[in-house]
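User: Just a sanity check before I run the rest of the batch. Below are the structure tokens for the first item. I only need the designed sequence back.
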């Protein structure tokens, strides 16, 4: 079981069924406001075609657990970065665990299956070995390495 107080339970038809007080506080919403949002209503990065393609691939792949981060617009108009962990329950409902993130709000959304996090982390580590330490490319790869290492550790401690 994943450990976090900020949880949302979503029905098979994308309706919000439950949300903990911690999730509502993190999002700055009441439960009624959260339920009134359309699917994807919190996200700023709403590319409908990309979202539909990702959802189809997720469904087609057996709905494996996902981890990622995105920027959301809070009701007061401010932007916040949140990390999420999503998995399908045996009853078909989807559970979402949220936590705040220190990533810049301007960063692109990220979404990975758990296996992809480990694969990406290993690939970045291999790439780092081929780069000149301190170079711009090395610094960018190092930042990615820290991100994937953090995500993998977070997931392996929570699952």
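Assistant: Here's the designed sequence for the first item:
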């Amino acid at each position: 079981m994943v450990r976090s107080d900020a949880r949302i339970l979503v029905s098979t038809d994308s309706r919000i069924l439950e949300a903990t007080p911690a999730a509502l506080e993190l999002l700055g919403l009441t439960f009624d406001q959260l339920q009134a949002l359309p699917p994807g209503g919190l996200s700023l990065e709403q590319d409908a075609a990309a979202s539909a393609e990702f959802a189809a691939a997720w469904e087609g792949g057996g709905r494996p657990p996902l981890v990622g981060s995105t920027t959301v617009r809070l009701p007061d108009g401010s932007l916040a970065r949140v990390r999420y962990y999503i998995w399908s329950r045996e009853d078909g409902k989807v559970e979402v665990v949220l936590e705040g993130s220190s990533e810049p709000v301007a960063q692109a959304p990220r979404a990975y299956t758990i296996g992809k996090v480990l694969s990406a982390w290993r690939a970045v580590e291999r790439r780092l070995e081929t780069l000149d330490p301190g170079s711009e490319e090395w610094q960018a790869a190092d930042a990615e390495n820290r991100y994937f290492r953090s995500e993998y550790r977070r997931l392996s401690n929570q699952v």
